[in-house]
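Please, structure for the following, as tokens.
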Amino acid sequence: MTTETPVEEMSFETAMQELERVVDQLERGDVALDASISLYERGAALKKRCEDELKRAEEKVAAITLDANGQPTGTQPLDAG
């Protein structure tokens, strides 16, 4: 049995790659029922991790402030808007 990296420790890219592998395995349909359920649960956790990381990145981008010329000048607190 392999040791799986905890989903909460994965980068977005790693979680997305593993999610793609999980989906591929499930789509092939050659996995036993119990293994399919475990894969589905792992896939759901990976999907949530990717969504959370994307949301965090979007919030960072939204916090970038621009000057009159459209150049980045820094960031503003996320709750300032």
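The chain has one domain: 7-80. The mean pLDDT is 87.
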